[in-house]
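User: I'm preparing a small set of examples for a lab meeting where we compare how different chains pack in three dimensions. I only have the primary sequence for this one, and I'd like the structure in token form so I can line it up with the others. Please keep the answer compact; I'll paste it straight into my notes.
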Amino acid sequence: MKKFIRVMKALSDPSRVKIVKILGHKELCVCELTALLGLAQSTVSKHLKLLEDAGLVSSKREGAWVNYYLTDGRDSLYAHAMLTHLEEWLGEEEEVRQILAQVPQVDRERIRVA
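Assistant: Understood. Below is the structure token output for the 114-residue chain.
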């Protein structure tokens, strides 16, 4: 039951659901997610940590960048099921559509972090 609760808690926040939807389209770094969501870098990092702990998101280092991407959910039946459904869900939500429309244009080289 612990794995189930961990996945459900990870997806109980609208910002984390948006991150999952975004990463379903493209792997991105924290600064790109920050720019897309309009959240503080520390907030996005905390969200990513919870999503990683639930087995929904993973990361890999590429030079100076740490890129985040959706897992295949193989390690957790619950993560796999939710990722499969989230692929189809929320596509009609205007806020989600607006964010996803911006994903192709986000460019980490042009983002200025204060």
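A couple of notes for your slides: The CA atoms of residues 10 and 91 lie 20 Å apart. The mean pLDDT is 91.

User: Perfect, thanks.
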